[in-house]
Every structure is written in C-alpha cells, then in structure tokens.
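Memo to structure team: turn this sequence into structure tokens by end of day. - J.P.
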Amino acid sequence: MKNGLLMKQKIIFWLDADLTSYCLAYYLQQRIDAEFYAIIDITNRAKEFFLNQKLVTFQKVWFYHDYVMKSTKDNVVNENESGLNISELVKNDRIFNPKYNEFYNFTKNEINSIITNEFSLFNEVLQIKPNIFVTTETALRPHHTFHKLCQAQKIKTLMLNNANWGNLSYLSENFHELDNFEMNFKHRQTTSNTFEQLEKRLQKKILSKNLTNFYTGLRKSKLEKIFAALQFLLISNNDHIKTHYTYFGRTKIKVLIKEIRNTLNYFSRQRYIDKNFPIKIPQNKNLIFFPMQQEPERSLLLTAPSYTDQIHTIDFISKCIPENYLLIVKEHPTQGPGRGWRKLSDYKKFLHNPRVFFIHPSVSASEIIKQSNLVISVSGTASLEASFFNTPSITFAKKDFTLISSIQKFNANEDLSLLIKNSLNLKTDPNEVGKYFDILEENSFVFDQLNFQLAYLSYFYFNGNLVDIEIDESKMKTFLNKNEEIFVNVINSIEKIISKC
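Reply from structure team:
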C-alpha cells in the first residue's frame, strides 16, 4: 500500500519470434489492470511491428540487439557478482560455439563486449522493479540469463511449460519443473496402479507422437519454402547481419549454399543410416538403451551443459557398462528433419565398437525400452518413460521425476560403472509412477503448444522457413481473434496466480 492506494503490478515479458508471449500479453491485458513491459529480441523487419503496434500497451520496451551491439570498454561481468556460471553459458551458447555456428567465429573481445552490454541492459530493465516475469520456456542463453537474474531478485516467474504429456501445459518458476513438486509427491496419497494400466496411459499421452506431428508439419510445404526463399533473396535487405550478432556472417549467398549443402547432406546421411542401422532389436542380449537427443537443443545446452557432446557421452557410457551388456543407441528421429542428421564421421566412430549398437531411428523407443535392462538418458524423457515398463533408468540432468525410486540421477563425481551396476537391480513401483502423473495432470491445463507453434509458423513465417518478415497489425489482430479460445486456460491460470501475488 502507498498513499492508501494499491500499486499496480509491473509485469515484464520476453518477446521474440515465438509469438506465444505476445499473445499472452494481449489476452492478459484485457483481463487485468497492470503495467506491461517487454524485452524484445526480434529481427529488423519484424521490429517495425513492435515499434508501432497498438494492440498491446507497453509502458516501455527494450529492443535487445539495440543495446548489446553498442561499443564498450567495460570489463566483462564478474561471475561472482552475477551469481551465474557465465563462462559455461557462453561455452554452450549455440551462437558463440563454432560447433553450431558455421557462419561466424566470435573473438573473445566480441563476446565480452556482448555479455557486458547484455548485463547492462538487464540491470536497466530490472530497475523498474517488476513484480512478475511472464515467459515461455527459455530456449536461448540471453532469455535464460534474464530469467535467472529475475529469480535472484525474487521476481515471481510464470513460465509456460509444455508438460511433455499429451496436450497439457503448466505454469512454474522453472523450466520443466512443477513448483513444490517434491512436497506434493511426498504427501500425496498413493493409488493402486499396474504396469498394464500405465502402458495404456502412456500410449494416450506420449510426447513422441506430438513431436512427430510437429516436425512432419513443419516446413513441409514446398510452395511456402519457395515463397520464403524469394522473400529472403529478393525482398529482404538482410541488414541484420550488421545489427544482430546472432546473424553475423549470414550473407545471402552463404545461407543459400548452406541450405543446398544441408539438403544434400540430409539425403546422403539418410542413405547411410538406412544401410547401416538395423531395424531389428538384438535378441538374447543384455541391453542398455541410450536414446540420443536432438542437437543443438536447450535440453542439452542449458539443462545438461557438461554433457552436450553426445558422441563422447556414448563412448563414456560404453566403457562403464558391464562386459556382458550391449549399449543400444538410437538417434533422435527429429534430428533428421530438424537438423539434417549428424556428420557421418560421428556415426562411423562406433562401427567397429563391439559394445555399441546403433539401431535405426524409426524403431519405436518404447519397444527398445521393453527389451532393455536399463535406460540411460542425458536429459530426455526416455528415463521417465522407462518406468512405465518396469525398466530402471539413469538421467544425467536434474529432473523432478527422479523422485521415482527406480530413476537415478548421475552426478559427475560418481562412479558411473557402480551406479549402472546398482541400477540394474532396481524395480519400479507402478504406484509411484501413477502418483507422479496424477500430480502433473492436476497441476496442468489443456494448451497444445506444439500445435499452436505450427499455427503461427504457418500464418506468419512461411511454414517456419523464414522468421525475418514484416508483420501487418491487421493480420495479427485476425490471428489473435482466431486463437482466443485456445488461450482461455492459460490466461485463467495466470490471472489466478497474479491475483494472489
């Protein structure tokens, strides 16, 4: 209270090419009286829309790249002062890391300048003293960094997470982690479940089906791809290669050459996989299953930063498994359509390793799990899925599902060989698994994020082929009106939480 009046909530948003947060701001402003602010990470052509739009009233906006591209002589941010492991975040940034960025190699001074300016921007934003940070999942390093700085200042975070379970989503303080989950799990009364019941439940809700539909729908239209190419080559002036460090080196000719090379690589790598990766699961073998994850991806770079090199991780695990076991490895099925598969040299490293068996990515992960004695995953949901089939598992990342006693968390200072040996003897309690998903479902609401992403990618971004586009306000208004019902559950949940803040 101040002067007898209740102060308005100050809500900060992170806006980017993912239009979900902008939609949240639009629908939320119709429901609550608050001050809205935004950090905007967008390309130059789309920037005009956010500069001039009248659909959402923001008290102030900060365009991320206008700030981080300033010249500076200041020293890089002190890690001890920020409370973040900045060097690790920088190392795994897909823009700074030459493993993922084929267009530009950043110097140490360039990176230091960008990081220094970034923290200067974030400190300026936080001086408005926001009460709430409404955001989607933090996919890239700057977004993730700002989230962590908000948490350090006790700013309430409402992160819209995909529950990885059917078409459900939920709001929480952290990425893929329900608030107070451990306490809820501890005090929740257990109900009776059988593995047969769990398997039926899994088949109805399994995430892999949604991901397959997403990548099947994404960039599938050849006509949209042609329109996007014409936009990029003939209409766009591509000026963000000078104003946005994330686009450094991405000249039109380099991008065109890369697209052609990626297409050729995809087909040659697909042929290699089809020829050399069997579709039959080895029989009469003791199997330990390692499902690979799509790369580069947030679930590795930010969630498990010490295990981003999956080829090295496979080699490491293969040396730790018992001698009478075979490590069966499955490439993530979206690595092909999403990333064009990996270099053939990565796969060929294990051709003559008798302890490693690469199986074709089209083979059902569930079928492999059923025939495996143990599942090991860096940070994917396969470790959780294993519990549906009474198969113990190990994860390398901090996950709430390690509350299930058959799922063990590997720590870097542990002996993985010993952990594998002990885990092989664990049994799954189906009642624990049922309890986990009961809590998840009760704290979630229907919002199909993948389907919504396909909607805006199709409507604005040439089916996901080009994000540097001009956005027409009337077209945006039509899109918002069309999708209003989809957001009802999300907005209701946000409003309910804000009312208690």
